[in-house]
Design goal:
- The chain is globular, with a radius of gyration of 20 Å.
- A hairpin with a 2-residue loop joins β7 and β8.
- 37% of the residues lie in helices and 20% in strands.
- By secondary structure, the chain is an alpha/beta fold.
- The strands form two sheets. The protein has a 15-stranded mixed sheet with strand order 9-10-5-11-4-1-3-2-16-17-18-15-12-14-13, with helices on both faces. Strands 6-7-8 form a three-stranded antiparallel sheet, with no helix packed on it.
Length: 423
């Protein structure tokens, strides 16, 4: 294994996994496997990039650090010479973490001196300029992310966000310096500040900028960012003769389908609205969920009764209704109850009802579902939409999955994903 990735949620893990699997156009990528939690056994010999998916984004900081360090140790034991800490391209975290504390711990463990911090993902409208993160034409704190139920983002300046979370000094490389090229950027990274460790926020406005940054990152022990930061990392190993360049493909998986959605993002709500124009959709009322008036069996019953209509079950809601429910029941109580409901439903759907294609919307929901399925690892296929690959497992029979982050995907994503998974 050449590159090891520690991802703080499951959809983010699949996002960066497909980036590493694809590599730069015309070159191919690395043979990539996504692991669901820290594995208990060594990786297969052919794996060149290993992505460990954790559900650590909203954990207490101490738990997130412990899990991330355990993942790091396993990846180092597989031979990785470069570690990537992957978080969301909207830098989802509070002033207590978990991005800063995890970066501090990994920096110390790897004795890294310069750690790139670049959450930019231009294909999804996330750009970093003068240290500030934008979502399309809006600063992060005016993009809708200020209403996120778990990690409301109130500041667009990544330097300030990190300084409040981290003990490691924070510095910055401007976009005007990035576009000078990889060699110049590598020199700036080497000479940035004094000899103590630093978290270096690096601007990026385009995929070309991310390619420059990725090539400049050759040899760095630790890199952090959104999935885009991995865009050129396979190139470095291919150029060094350590990899040949791999091209992934999708096996065809037919059979029964299910769509489970727990994201509250504006993009997901629009996708649900589009899906219900032509397909069967069931909305779960949070009050019913919290009072246990709806169960996993109810979800399964609906899914199986509407197999000809691409059935979708969701617990999403607009910001006002979500806030009202949180005030009544408590944010973490709702998350825990929904995670259990979707996890139990997924287990029944796959292992009892024989569902073969499963699409999940939302990072927390994806984590709950794949944890409940106890799949161990997933093979990474082709990209369905930017940042969302087809994933394949063999729990008992072939199972195809798509794990979609809340803000990702085209408007008709859910039906489109089922078609792609069918081959």
């Amino acid at each position: 294994m050449l590159i090891g990735v520690i991802a703080d949620d499951f959809t983010g893990a699949s996002d960066i996994a497909v980036t590493l699997s694809q590599g730069l156009p015309g070159e191919g990528g690395l043979r990539t496997t996504q692991y669901l939690g820290v594995p208990q056994q060594p990786a297969h010999a052919e794996v060149e990039a290993g992505v460990i998916a954790l559900k650590s984004r909203s954990l207490p900081a101490s738990e997130a650090v412990a899990q991330s360090l355990a993942a790091c140790e396993w990846l180092l034991a597989q031979g990785c010479s470069q570690i990537v800490f992957k978080y969301c391209s909207t830098f989802d975290s509070t002033d207590e973490g978990n991005i800063g504390p995890v970066l501090d711990a990994l920096t110390a463990r790897l004795q890294a001196k310069r750690v790139i911090v670049c959450p930019a993902f231009p294909a999804m409208g996330r750009t970093l300029y003068q240290g500030n993160l934008f979502v399309h034409d809006r600063p992060l704190n005016e993009s809708g992310m200020e209403h996120h139920p778990l990690t409301p983002m109130k500041d667009a300046d990544i330097r300030r966000l990190l300084a409040r979370q981290s003990h490691t000094p924070v510095s910055h490389i401007r976009w005007q310096q990035v576009v000078e090229g990889s060699e110049g950027l590598r020199e700036r990274l080497e000479t940035q500040g004094n000899d103590s460790a630093q978290l270096v926020v690096v601007d990026a406005l385009s995929d070309h900028d991310l390619t420059i940054i990725g090539i400049a990152a050759a040899g760095l022990k630790l890199i952090s960012g959104g999935s885009g930061i991995a865009r050129a990392l396979p190139h470095n190993f291919i150029k060094a003769g350590q990899a040949q360049g791999h091209r992934s493909n999708n096996p065809a998986v037919s059979g029964a389908t299910a769509i489970l959605v727990g994201s509250c993002s504006g993009a997901t709500r629009g996708q649900i609205e589009e899906h219900q124009k032509h397909h069967a959709v069931l909305a779960l009322d949070i009050t019913d969920v919290m009072n246990e008036r709806v169960s996993a069996d109810d979800v399964v019953k609906f899914i199986l009764a509407h197999q000809q209509e691409c059935p979708l079950v969701y617990s999403s809601g607009d910001p006002d209704s979500v806030q009202q429910a949180q005030q009544q029941f408590g944010q973490h109580n709702i998350s825990r109850q929904l995670d259990k409901l979707f996890g139990d439903a997924a287990r029944k759907l796959v292992y009892e009802a024989g569902i073969k294609r499963l699409v999940v919307g939302g990072g927390e929901t994806s984590g709950a579902v794949v944890s409940a399925l106890n799949l161990g690892s997933l093979q990474v296929g082709e990209e369905i939409d930017p940042g969302v690959p087809a994933l394949f497992a063999q729990p008992e029979a072939p199972l195809a999955l798509a794990l979609k982050s809340g803000n990702f995907g085209r408007r008709d994503f859910f039906a489109h994903a089922l078609k792609v998974l069918a081959g």
